[in-house]
Specification:
3 helices, mainly beta, globular, 33% strand
């Protein structure tokens, strides 16, 4: 992974609009009803989070990922963890928590080099490997079917009574994949690729059997692929700044 400055906040879509138009090998453009207009970035810019904990060279060299985890556990609320300059080999992933920013001394100055083997699925290694720095939220198992309003541009979803959602909830709106579009090759039919037709939105009003969300749906969710939603609890206001993250020899695609 190249030198980076990442921030994952509650508000992560802002800035200049960009329409992504992909062209396949045949030269045919994706139909307009499948294009998504993105408005990416952090509104107001990347926040300057004060340093709450500093990890020393000795601690990071001796404890590895454990030094970062211990520093995270000492932070009450929000704060940044300042890492030292140098190259450090880590054999466990860093699991971020809400409100914490992992900050180096500069791209190329602080280098976290992860020796993480790629995960396997059906006996096959998944590459590129992933998960060196993890921001793993939770999503509830209960699904609520969407009866209507699951078309592109809609902000009102009919879900019926007893949906259990509340104003302010973040929800994942999704459906099964269309196999004619997603599974043109059998290798694409994998658990991590399912429910790719999805969007995260916030509930802004509860009208009984209907939920109003903050952002219009970007894609049509076809009724035959069971549109539904569930509540999610993501990691928010966390970030990674001013460092280089790489894979160790033999794990170069971390």
């Amino acid at each position: 992974m190249n030198p980076m400055h990442l921030y994952f906040g509650k508000r992560i879509f802002a800035g200049t609009s960009l329409v992504l138009a992909l062209v396949g090998l045949s030269g045919a453009e994706i139909p307009s009803d499948r294009l998504v207009e993105w408005d990416a970035g952090v509104r107001g810019g990347i926040p300057d989070v004060p340093v709450a904990e500093t990890v020393t060279v000795e601690a990071l060299g001796r404890l590895g990922t454990g030094a970062i985890t211990e520093a995270m556990e000492r932070i009450e609320g929000a704060g940044a963890i300042l890492l030292p300059e140098g190259a450090f080999y880590l054999e466990e992933p860093v699991r971020m928590r809400p409100g914490v920013v992992l900050r180096g001394r500069g791209a190329g100055k602080t280098r976290l080099i992860f020796a993480l083997p790629p995960p396997e699925e059906d006996g096959i290694s998944i590459r590129p490997a992933y998960g060196a720095i993890r921001m793993e939220g939770k999503r509830e198992t209960r699904e609520v079917g969407i009866r209507s309003g699951h078309r592109r541009g809609s902000r009102e979803l009919e879900v019926g009574a007893g949906h259990g959602m509340e104003v302010g909830d973040l929800i994942l709106v999704y459906s099964d994949n269309d196999p004619e579009l997603m599974y043109t090759e059998s290798r694409w039919d994998r658990p991590w690729a399912r429910e790719s037709m999805a969007q995260i939105v916030t509930v802004v009003a509860d009208r009984g059997e209907r939920l109003v969300v903050d952002t219009p749906l970007r894609l049509d969710l076809k009724a035959e692929f069971a549109p539904r939603l569930r509540r999610i609890r993501p990691i928010t206001d966390a970030g990674v700044e001013a460092m280089t993250v790489a894979g160790a020899a033999g794990f170069d695609d971390t």
